[in-house]
Amino acid sequence: MIETPTSPRPGKHRLPQGSEKARAVEEMFDRIAPRYDLLNRLLTFRMDVGWRRAAVHSLELVSGSRVLDLACGTGDVCRTLRGDDYWPVGVDFSAGMLAAAHANAPLVRADAARLPFADGTLDGLTCGFALRNFVDLGVVLAECARILRPRGRIALVDVSEPTRGPVRAVHRLWFRQVVPFVGGVVSDRSAYAYLPASTAYLPARPQLLQIVATAGFIRVEHRTLGAGAAQLITGTRG
Is the per-residue pLDDT at 165 higher than 90? Predict the structure, then answer.
C-alpha cells in the first residue's frame, strides 16, 4: 500500500522493536484508516492498483481456490482476488482498518504470527506492503506455510528502491520529502514521515528470499515493479 506503521511519537524516525513495534503499528493503522485508500492512490499515481493486481495474477491457481490476504487493510486485494474468481478471506490486526474495509469477503481480526486456520487448509496467500510491519517476519512466514496446502502459492508485495541513478534520485525525493508532506496534509504526518524509515525493517533481497525459503517455500522468485519502487516475491509451498 504505500502502507506503513508509525514510530512512537517521541523520537522522530526511531524504529520501534518487539512489542513496542506491534503497538505502534496497530495504533497507526487505526488512525490512518479513514484516508488510507485515498493516499495510496494519490502517492503512487494509482500504480499500487497494478502492483496488487500483479500479485494476484502471479498466484496462478485454479478458479475457486481459497486465498488468504494477510494484512488486508481495507480489502483492496480481496476485491481483486474475487475478480479473478478466487474465494478470498482477509486478516488484519487493526480494528480501524477492518472497520473501514469495503470487501465482499469474510474479514478476520487476528495476529499474523498466530493465524486462526488449520494446517493446510488454504490454496494461496497474498500480502500487500506489510512485510516490514511484522515483528518477526520469519515466524509470520512459517505460519503462512503452515496454513497452506502442499504446492499452495504465495505472492508478497512490498516497497523497494530503484537502483538506476536518475530514477533512484527522483524516487528518494518523492519518498522522503513529498510523501511525508502530502501525508501530513491529508492524514497523519507522523505516520507518513515514518514511511522512508520503515524500509529499514526489510532485509536485503538475498536475505529476504532466504527467509521465505527457510519458512518452507520452494521456487522462490523475485521481480521488481514500478521501475523498482516495489517488489514482488512469489513461492510455492514445499
Answer: no
4 close to 192: Cβ distance less than 8 angstroms: yes
- Asked if residue 91 lies in contact with residue 77, where contact means CB atoms within 8 angstroms, the answer is no
Tell the CATH topology of 18-163+191-237: Rossmann fold (3.40.50)
Say yes or no to pLDDT of 7 above 80: no
Q: What's this model's pTM, rounded to 2 decimal places? A: 0.89
Q: How far is Cα 25 from Cα 6, in angstroms, rounded to an integer?
A: 6
Residues comprising the chain, all counted:
238
- Cell 506503521 belongs to 5
CA dist list (Å): 73 to 92, 136, 172? 6, 19, 25
Span 17-37, pLDDT tens digits? 899 999 988 999 999 998 888
**H or E element, residue 54:** helix 47-58
Residue the block writes with cell 494519490? 42
Is residue 128 scored above 50 in pLDDT? yes
Domain ranges across the chain:
18-163+191-237
